[in-house]
Amino acid sequence: MNAQKKTRVLLAPLDWGLGHATRCIPIIRYLRKKGCEVVLATSGAPASLLTREFPDLEIKQLDGYNIRYSSGSSLFGSMLLQLPGIIGNIRKEHKWLNELLKKEEFDFIISDNRPGFYHKKVYSIYITHQLLIHSGKGKWLNGLLQQIHARYMKPFNKVWVPDLEGTKNLAGELSHPFKQLVQPTYLGLVSRFETVLPVEPMYDLMVLLSGPEPQRTILEQTLYHQLQTFTGKVLFVRGLPHQQSSTLPLIDHITVHTHLPAHQMQQAIASSEIILCRSGYTTLMDLIRLKKKAILIPTPGQPEQEYLAAHMQEQQLFPTLQQDQFDVETALQTAQSFSYEQPFTDVDFNWYQQVMDELLKSK
Predict the structure, then answer these.
(1) Superfamily (CATH H level) for 203-337
(2) How many C-alpha atoms does 88 have within 13 Å on its Cβ side?
(3) What pLDDT score was predicted for residue 301?
């Protein structure tokens, strides 16, 4: 690295839920630790979240994809209708980046699942855990989507996968498809949290909401209604970093936050007996990092979360319950009888730093 000039990195996370932004937090921290200047390209909820974590970082306003789930059971039909807009956004972000690079110079570009965010003259890295995309419509369509995704990844210099290489991994066939169409670099597991010593629980239950609308609100209403008669102490985190105050009715035994920054979130999870949450991949990495017991509620009709939830249960990492059948008492009984295996170590969460060191040495 040139001591006279900071290495400049432009980083853009996808706005589909908050997981893409939150898993970029340790990457941003490490780049800054190594003396790099990091500039963010994002907007909306991811921008609000990352601004709270890094208030001094420059953020360039890049429009999100604004993907919404159907309130029904099928994501496939909803995504099909939004496909022209998604393709348009990919082209739009590529054009936006080209215009920016006419005015500013960067040494590296890091795109978390934004396929158009690359440039042929700047070393570009694409982050994804979905080398195989589950469609929910069978292997033939999964294979077609894998080919399309691989085509979008081809212009990038590197593909980083936040998972472990080999048979001990977290995302199963999503990150380790039977047929590899790209040559990825596995980052190891990536979490914004650090390991902590066990603490005395302050809450019997923590609800950790996330994901695009309207399903986030549907689950929020279901859980908040059921928890009104729950006798234990509850921490309810809504996953809305862009909101300043809660609109939910006040209930004595439920503490509500619209959002918590990383250090407070870590303390909250560590001091909660059981976590109720979606089966988003970043959430799973965070829970495993803190060695917490959780019950997964996959987003209805989202094949990736449904696959991950089933895979977690099969591996005895976390149990899962369906949203339309969810009952708090049943959930707690399920948690009490579940084994909660913990096969991952601190080393698995530090591997990404070696990958990034190699990148920076190449500068």
Answers:
(1) Glycogen Phosphorylase B; (3.40.50.2000)
(2) 9
(3) 83
Best CA proximity match to 355, nearest among 200, 188, 191, 230: 188
The alpha helices in 271-327, defined as continuous H runs, are 281-289, 303-314
Residue (of 229, 276, 219) closest to 253 by Cα position: 229
The reply to whether omega before 214 is within 30° of 0 (cis) is yes
| pTM assigned to the model | 0.92
Token pair, residue 215, equals 């399903």
State which H helix or E strand residue 159 sits in: strand 158-161
CA distances from 177 to 21, 138, 165 (A): 25, 14, 12
Structural tokens at position 159: 């593909």
Structure tokens at 248: 């939910």
Q: What does the pLDDT look like over 18-44, one tens digit per residue? A: 899 999 999 999 999 999 999 999 999
Do residues 288 and 312 make contact, with C-beta atoms less than 8 angstroms apart? no
The residues spanned by each domain of the chain are: 8-189+347-361, 203-337
CB proximity list for 257: less than 8 A, separation 6 or greater: 235, 236, 237, 238, 246
Q: Measure the CA–CA gap between 267 and 265, rounded to whole angstroms.
A: 5
Question: Which CATH code fits 8-189+347-361?
Answer: 3.40.50.2000
Give the H/E segment covering residue 44: helix 44-53
Give residue 2's pLDDT band: very low, low, confident or very high (50, 70, 90).
very low
Interatomic CA distance for residues 224 and 249, integer angstroms:
9
**CB 108 within 8 Å of CB 125:** yes
Q: What is the pLDDT of residue 305?
A: 94
Decide if 8-189+347-361 and 203-337 have a common fold. yes
Residue 58 is which amino acid?
Answer: E
Helix (H, G, I), strand (E, B) or coil at 228: coil
CA distance 188 to 101: 31
Quick one: what percent of the chain has pLDDT higher than 90? 78
Contacts of 350 (CB under 8 A, 6+ apart): 188
Q: What is the number of other CB atoms lying within 10 angstroms of the CB of residue 321?
A: 18
User: Cα separations (Å) of 198 from 48, 276, 305?
Assistant: 30, 19, 29
